[in-house]
């Protein structure tokens, strides 16, 4: 006769008690982590002084998030687990010193969405009206870091961001990639069938062109300064009984209390925008990095070929090449190049040394962790 006790069935009350117990342990550990973060701040202040202390370390945060994803066993996905830790880290960092982050505004833009994704929600948000204002805000020290868009997978490069690096000495400290989902939004108190105009940024209208041609071919499309501005205009119009719609993202929808009529209306499901984090400090290696260069080439035959040849010879993977007018001489150009590796790596140093011998100017815009989220 067996002495094995029958298994106790996991009833709903027992499962809820177990969840409560786990929640209690999680809360204790989060607060323990927060206390450690406070001690880190005390040590930094004691060693470096209040003026020189750097609380946010991009390479350290990238390493932590990568380890979170590597050791994750599910059932939560790697990215979901990393997002949870991202916010825990953001809250703990705010105990040391809240970061003030400038971004291309107004509030509700995809750039703000990218800023929150990269830094978490425990930051002081500072929306700016233009990309060059984001640069000035960081240069002046009024913001710790800035977030600006640099390229979209369907619409290409953001020239204004590249041009801003010509006269700025700011460094690229990080990158974040944001999958862009566009939604058709209206005010809750209007009839969708009465919509006469659809507002959005011209790039968003372009990214949803096929969908609009199919479902809203006769409604006028109006380009405005940003998707967030489109959402604000629709909210204001709705209060006055005017039936208009906006194409914008999730943050703008929540911020202005709009109703989502159709979700994910972008023509390409892989539509992604890459954003850069700009700051004043060089970032140490994280183990998986990318470097960006600004190069002013000599105006002579084969100049570009000789620049690119250095990457092949030293086995360095170049991932992007963009060209912009130099504004110094007629038909003079500046090249923006991204490649895999940190500028302190020996092979990267060799490439940069060769480039400096062959170009009028070579400036390292920054080495920074490859986007984790």
List the main descriptive attributes of the protein structure presented here.
15 strands; 4 domains; D-Maltodextrin-Binding Protein, domain 2; alpha/beta
Could you describe the 3D structure shown?
The structure is a single chain. With about 375 residues, the protein is an alpha/beta fold. It has four domains: about 30-45 and about 55-95; about 100-180 and about 270-280, Periplasmic binding protein-like II (D-Maltodextrin-Binding Protein, domain 2), CATH 3.40.190; about 185-250, Periplasmic binding protein-like II (D-Maltodextrin-Binding Protein, domain 2, 3-Layer(aba) Sandwich), CATH 3.40.190; about 280-370, Alpha-Beta Plaits. It has helices at about 10-50, 60-70, 80-95, 110-120, 130-140, 160-165, 200-205, 210-215, 225-240, 250-255, 305-315, 345-360; strands spanning about 100-105, 125-130, 145-150, 155, 170-180, 185, 195-200, 220-225, 245-250, 260, 270-280, 290-295, 320-325, 335-340, 360-370. It starts with 11 loop residues before the first helix and ends with a strand. It catalyses: prephenate + H(+) = 3-phenylpyruvate + CO2 + H2O; chorismate = prephenate. One of its GO terms (cellular component) is cytoplasm. Its main location: cytoplasm.
């Amino acid at each position: 006769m067996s002495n094995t006790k029958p298994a106790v069935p996991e009833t709903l009350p027992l499962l809820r008690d177990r969840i409560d117990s786990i929640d209690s342990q999680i809360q204790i550990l989060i607060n323990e982590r927060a206390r450690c973060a406070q001690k880190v701040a005390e040590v930094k202040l004691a060693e470096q002084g209040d003026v020189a202390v750097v609380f946010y370390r991009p390479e350290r945060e990238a390493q932590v998030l990568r380890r979170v994803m590597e050791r994750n066993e599910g059932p939560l996905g790697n990215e979901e687990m990393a997002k949870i830790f991202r916010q825990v880290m953001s809250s703990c960092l705010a105990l040391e010193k809240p970061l003030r982050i400038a971004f291309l505004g107004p509030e509700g833009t995809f750039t703000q969405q990218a800023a929150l994704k990269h830094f978490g929600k425990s930051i002081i948000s500072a929306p700016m009206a233009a990309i060059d204002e984001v640069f000035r805000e960081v240069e002046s020290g009024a913001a710790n870091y800035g977030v600006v868009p640099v390229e979209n997978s369907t619409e290409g490069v953001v020239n204004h961001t590249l041009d801003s690096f010509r006269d700025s000495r700011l460094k690229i400290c990080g990158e974040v990639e944001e999958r862009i989902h566009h939604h058709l939004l209206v005010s809750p108190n209007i009839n969708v069938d009465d919509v006469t105009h659809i507002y959005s940024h011209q790039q968003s209208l372009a990214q949803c062109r096929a969908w609009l041609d199919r479902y809203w071919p006769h409604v006028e499309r109006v380009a405005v300064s940003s998707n967030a501005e489109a959402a604000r205009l629709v909210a204001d119009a709705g209060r006055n009984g005017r039936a208009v719609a906006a194409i914008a993202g999730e943050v703008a929808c929540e911020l202005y209390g709009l109703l989502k009529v159709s979700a994910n209306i972008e023509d390409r499901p892989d539509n992604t925008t890459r954003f850069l984090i700009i700051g004043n400090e060089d970032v140490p290696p994280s183990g998986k990095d990318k470097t960006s260069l600004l190069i002013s080439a000599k105006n002579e035959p084969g100049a570009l070929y000789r620049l690119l040849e250095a990457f092949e010879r030293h086995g360095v993977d170049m991932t992007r090449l963009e060209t912009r007018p130099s504004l110094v001489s007629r038909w003079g150009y500046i090249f923006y190049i991204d490649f895999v590796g940190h500028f302190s790596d020996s092979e990267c140093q060799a490439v940069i040394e060769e480039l400096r011998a062959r170009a009028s100017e070579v400036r390292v815009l920054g080495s920074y962790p490859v986007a984790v989220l």
